[in-house]
Amino acid sequence: MIKQVIKELKSLKDKKHAILLQRFFKTGKGEYGEGDKFLGITVPEQRKIVRKYWNDTTIEELEEMLTNEYHEIRLTALLMLTARYEKKNEERKKIKELYLRNTKNINNWDLVDLSAPRIIGAWVLKNPSEKKILYEMARSKDLWKKRIAIISTAWLIKNNQYKETIELSEILLEDKHDLIHKAVGWMLRELGKKNEPALELFLEKNYKKMPRTMLRYSIEKFPEKTRKEWLKKEKINY
Fold first, then answer.
1. Hey, what's the torsion of the CAs at 171, 200, 151, 237, to 10 degrees?
2. What is the mean pLDDT of the chain?
3. pTM, rounded to two decimals
4. What's the CA gap between 178 and 87, in Å, rounded?
């Protein structure tokens, strides 16, 4: 079945759009997406194929798709895995294990952001004893494992669990990569939308060590006056 899926995806390729995507996702030498290849397919187009085929593919086929050289084919595989995870309870453990052994192929921020919360986040919510997975990935040297760890907590925040977001944010506080600054700031912002006092407590404790991008992302939803107060503190700190 994946031959048909890949055939349909490739029939949608757009060379001009592929060039734009390669620039947008930083595929140049020394950039975080170095060497990745694009077909130039939009996410809505991929979602149409996901809806058409997600139930007709096997997990093994989707794992094979996840090793494909083209970014959109890997993303389509992840979207199909997400659909299967949500609808097929009996497959959830296998999908979680597949995901964790293929993190090297989940190697750009969109691939992480569109899959990690609904697979790894959903798994650890239902299996609290396995939350250690998040901490192990956060402490790794791999950029994408670290992003998977923090972005997965979006699902926990959605279900009113904040401890992991706070603890992982502290682990990643002094990470050097801008993509981690943005990811942590984003999750802190989501935490603040649910529990503003918890975010303010985190900020009081850590704002002096927070990269500017992380801080500014985290306070985006604060009232204007409160946001300006934090930005004033930031200026003093720097």
1. -60
2. 94
3. 0.94
4. 35
